[in-house]
Design goal:
This protein is an alpha+beta fold. It has three helices and seven strands, in the order E-E-E-E-H-H-H-E-E-E.
């Protein structure tokens, strides 16, 4: 990535190559991070275009999009469900915050999926504590 004051240039490689003779169109309806309720039907021809239009979280809620492009489809017509059509998977995690004198303070952290749907129920959160070692002496 090259950054010049006021200008940012990023190169994104298309991770799913299509065959030389891509053909066919697939219609998909699903939960999207950006639902586009003003124009519900959108045609996309690449995976990166789908990611830009519907959000990166939509790749997890609609895994068929990546499979379709990897199997040689020319384009996909996507219809995103309205933002109110489903529930976002979420989890509240309880933990203790410790002050410098090792006094614990109970706290919670709420983690939610980026898009609605049951796909978020298969995710998990893992916390790895940072252990401080005090020098001897």
């Amino acid at each position: 990535m090259l950054t010049i004051p006021g200008i940012q240039i990023t190169v994104t490689k298309e991770l799913v190559p299509r065959g030389l003779s891509a053909a066919g169109v697939l219609g998909i309806i699903g939960c999207a991070e950006i639902p586009h309720e003003d124009a519900p039907l959108r045609e996309v021809t690449t995976l990166s275009e789908f990611r830009e239009l519907f959000g990166a979280g939509s790749l997890a809620s609609m895994p068929e999009v990546e499979l379709a492009f990897s199997n040689g489809l020319k384009s996909i017509v996507c219809a995103a469900l309205p933002a109110t059509a489903g529930l976002f998977a979420s989890l509240e995690v309880a933990f203790d915050l410790f002050a410098a004198d090792a006094t614990p303070t109970p706290s919670t952290l709420k983690v939610s999926a980026r898009t609605a749907g049951t796909w978020g129920n298969d995710l998990f959160v893992r916390f790895v504590p940072k252990v401080r070692v005090r020098p001897n002496g």
